[in-house]
Amino acid sequence: ERLRKTKNGGVANKLPHQVLRRNERERKRVQQVNLGFVHLRDRVPQSTSSKKLSKVETLREAARYIKHLQDILR
């Protein structure tokens, strides 16, 4: 059995299969987030740089592009 500390300082038992399931869920969640960033990068216009944007840069460029589109509509 695996022991881990809880948020309130206690100790909780985690069975190996529970840990494996939790880790797998987290891997899938991270994959989905990363896939979302890939799709967002594909839809945000970039400068001529072929460098892949970081997640933060992608969010900034997406916000800038949304503002640009809003300005066009005004």
From TrEMBL:
Keywords, ordered alphabetically:
DNA-binding, Neurogenesis, Nucleus
Region Disordered, annotated ranges: 1-26
A GO biological process held by the record: regulation of growth
Cellular localization per UniProt:
Nucleus
Name the Pfam families on file. Answer: HLH
Give the BHLH domain ranges: 17-69
Highest taxon listed in the record's lineage? Eukaryota
Gene Ontology terms for molecular function: DNA-binding transcription factor activity, RNA polymerase II-specific; protein dimerization activity; RNA polymerase II transcription regulatory region sequence-specific DNA binding
Q: Which Gene3D superfamilies match?
A: Helix-loop-helix DNA-binding domain (4.10.280.10)
Q: Which InterPro entries match?
A: bHLH_dom, E-box_TF_Regulators, HLH_DNA-bd_sf
Give a yes or no for keyword Repressor in this entry.
Answer: no
One GO cellular component, as annotated: nucleus
Instruction: Write down the PROSITE patterns for this protein, in alphabetical order.
Output: BHLH (PS50888)
What is this protein called in UniProt? BHLH domain-containing protein
Lineage, highest ranks first: Eukaryota, Metazoa, Ecdysozoa, Nematoda, Chromadorea
